[in-house]
Amino acid sequence: MSASVAPAGKRRVDAPLRPPWSQQGLIEVFRHRYILTLLVRREIAARYQGSVLGLLWSYVNPLSQFLIYYFVMGILFGRAQRTEDFAIHVFCGLIVVHFFVETMNAGTRSIVRNKSLVQKMAVPREMFPVASMLVSLFHVVPQVLILLVATLIAGWQPDPLGLIYGVLGLLIAMILGTAMALMFSAANVFLRDISNAVSILSNFVRFGVPMMYPYALVAERFRGHTDLYLLNPMTQAVLCFQRAFWVGATEDPARTAAIDLPPDFFYLTVRALVISVAVLIFAQSTFTRLERRIPERLL
Amino acid sequence: MKGRKSDNRSIVVRHVSKTFTLRYHRTLKQMSVAMMRQQELSDSFLAVDDVSFTVQQGESIGLMGLNGSGKSTLLKMINGIMRPDSGRVLTRGRTAGLIATGAGFHAQLSGRDNVYLNAAILGMTEAETRRKFDDIVEFADIGKFLDSPVGHYSSGMFARLGFAVAIHVDADIFLADEVLAVGDRPFKKKCLAKMQEIRDGGTTLFYVSHSAGSVRKMCDRVLVLEKGRLMFDGGVDEGIKFLHYDDDKDSALDTEDELDEEMGADI
Q1: What ipTM score was computed for the predicted complex, to two decimals?
Q2: Closest-CA residue of chain A to B265
């Protein structure tokens, strides 16, 4: 019987002997770009499969939120009369906030939801929260297109500096969103309560940034005490997006910027970026600490 | 003989242990009740206990043992999914395997999409998958179901597709965990034949099975785990004897064994 067994050494393997587990870490994720692409594509294809509206749901959801905010804050509370182009102001904020909240919520559940994959493959597990972020980012693109059309109709004059701020705003949301997704996805494996806590946090984000109210209102009510409010990188991300697409649509952009944006805007943007990166580094170290025990806790 | 270098080790496992924590009480309410009654809140359990062995490239190992003896945990550590608490695991080259066959399939996506995803997970590049795609589909024999969601597949088809992908990975180490528990007889036969082909190509085979017949057919060395400890490492027949798998003639297992034995003759 054992005559058919090949003699040992027939196959030469040149690779070195090394530990079988994959290198972990965010940087490693981008070395596995092919799997990442497939995961993102799968997620996009599967999210709305079987529903009649399909991908349209990604617009129905933010659109309905937009209408609620606009109706309640703009019409009922009368903000629409006092803030110029209030609809665009809200929509700018909504794109950034919705992207961030989606990344955080989907990211938190990403590892638990993909447990069969996590238990099968030896790839960096940071891949799942990162994929969640990229799926959410995919849905941002058409929303920005809608925003562009709306703001052009409102008389938007694009300026290069504004567009740079727009990109930076999105970048802040991406980095901070990934950090949150990373941290909570690992924690959620050990304590499933995390995903419930995260949805509460989402509410704080929605109301804690100048989306349904202008920053001018905050500056007026909390004169001299806005530091804490501005420390939140998401505040700055939203302000950056408004600087890009809303300020230029108002009648006197220079005046709007003076009233509705905080002073030292550039400094605040850089600071928000630095804070986001710091949170990301902290998230990565938390993830690395928890990651070792993930496969056995997923059972 | 070519003057090959002496180091031909494929898998090195040194003093590997793995402990699992069992949590008895998960909710706050349960925990406070347990604390009042002074019960244990958690308990640990040694799944793999100081296991050491070395496998040379091209060997085929049968890993045997009763349920819960730590076989799958050991396999997961060799595969790199889990890390040992202490000790070292080293492998050489690409590892592929049939661990939880078909896991990672997305029920809503078509068989075709799932093949690409699963192959990528097992370490295949896009070009490699494309090259082997027809072979995989032919091996799985799912015909016109290829483009329908795998959620509609029968459990056999599901397992066949998972198996087909894994078996087409060009690996240096091939891990197989209870693979023949699924599928009908013709498919089992096909799988065994394919695994023999892989083995004969010089791939290190690590085969977990309860079936003495197929281990006898596939392997040239047997490891036996008992409660996480490596109790036997040696020849196939002695290993099977060590487990007493050959002498409980009146058990229900035996018919399965005979089946495998018979299948072996067919191949």
Answers
A1: 0.78
A2: A1
